[in-house]
Design brief:
Elements lengths: L2 H11 L5 H13 L3 E3 L2 E6 L2 H13 L5 E7 L2 E8 L2 H11 L18 H15 E3 L8 E5 L2 H13 L5 E5 L2 E6 L2 H11 L2 H50 L8 H12 L5 H5 L8 H30 L5
Antiparallel strand pairs: 1-2, 2-4, 3-4, 5-6, 6-8, 7-8
Helix pairs in contact: 2-3, 2-5, 7-8, 8-11, 9-11
Pfam family, one: LAGLIDADG_WhiA
InterPro entries: Homing_endonucl, Sporulation_regulator_WhiA, Sporulation_regulator_WhiA_C, WhiA_LAGLIDADG_dom
GO molecular function: DNA binding
Length: 315
């Protein structure tokens, strides 16, 4: 089962007690149904429990509907419908509508308390919403072709500080929430508390993983830097050795060169402890730079001598 399906199952399983909240849940289904007008109401879903939830909520408000299973090439669809004229009239009386409205907008009078808003938003999500698995990204969205409804729904979510955004995808209005904290809070608000906890847990896992990655990248960068520095110093020392210049060096520089040749893989800090007494990192760094400088000077003189010999100039 997908993460979105698990969230829907949590929402339909929650208990709604107050009559005003039950009506708000029905109102959410009506607003985001396939159609809601003088003909009645039709809402389609791939989850049977969601269709049965809609039927139960309307039944508690005195409006009878039916759930029908329909087989399609893409899979089974469950349709909740209210088509009987007497039931359609009862439904519109419940919401104070006529079915002749040219557009659907949210009636604030039908959302009397915070529980009403929660029930309404939960039904909207059941009808046309989805949420991405938090292992991939954080995103919760609700779609509707009704522009005025989309504007009102965005304002409703903003009023309750879920930081929604709205855009259009082809001819469909998309209201979405991106930030992980807001997706988590909105799921909990709708009644999908376990899904909300999974968002929080996954966020914690990602945080730890990112910290480990940053540490690993830092360690890798430091290791690469150490390897480059060691290679440069070793190259200089070996050049001095080839030229027979090591024996002529002061004791401190010769000892530093011998230790680096003996422990080529150690970082500068680790190499300090190989001296007796141990050297400071800055002190050893100074000696290594001195060795590199001497090698450069010796190489420069050798290159100059070679150039002068090629040009036939006296040395």
């Amino acid at each position: 089962m997908s993460f979105a399906s698990e969230a829907r199952e949590e929402i339909v399983a929650r208990s709604i007690q107050k009559e005003c909240c039950v009506r708000a849940a029905c109102y959410g289904v009506a607003c985001f149904a396939k159609y809601f007008d003088a003909r009645g109401l039709v809402f389609q879903t791939e989850q049977q429990k969601t269709a049965e939830y809609a039927k139960e909520m309307f039944a508690r408000c005195g409006v009878r509907g039916s759930v029908t299973e329909k087989c399609r090439p893409s899979g089974t669809v469950y349709e909740f419908a209210i088509r009987e004229p007497s039931e359609v009239a009862q439904m519109h009386a419940l919401f104070g509508t006529t079915g002749e409205e040219t557009s659907i907008q949210i009636d604030p009078a039908l959302l009397r308390c915070r529980g009403c808003v929660s029930a309404y938003v939960g039904s909207a999500f059941l009808c046309s919403g989805t949420v991405t698995d938090p292992q991939k990204e954080y995103n919760l969205e609700v779609l509707t072709p009704r522009t005025n409804l989309a504007r009102d729904f965005e304002a409703l979510l903003a009023e309750h500080e879920f930081a929604p955004h709205r855009t259009r995808r082809k001819s469909i209005n998309l209201i979405y929430v991106k930030a992980s904290a807001n997706v988590e809070a909105l799921l909990a608000f709708m009644g999908a508390e376990e899904a909300a906890r999974k968002i929080g847990s996954e966020k914690a896992v990602k945080s730890v993983r990112n910290q480990v990655n940053r540490f690993t990248n830092c360690e890798t960068a430091n290791l690469s830097k150490t390897i480059r520095a060691n290679a440069q110093t070793l190259k200089a020392i070996r050049y001095l050795e080839q030229q027979g210049a090591l024996d002529a060096l002061p004791d401190s520089l010769r000892e530093a060169a011998e230790k680096r040749l003996e422990f080529p893989e150690l970082s500068l800090g680790a190499l300090c402890s190989r001296f007796d007494p141990a050297l400071s990192k800055s002190g050893l760094s100074h000696r290594m730079k001195k060795l590199e400088g001497l090698a450069q000077q010796l190489q420069a003189r050798a290159e100059q001598k070679e150039t002068e010999e090629l040009n036939g100039q006296p040395v």
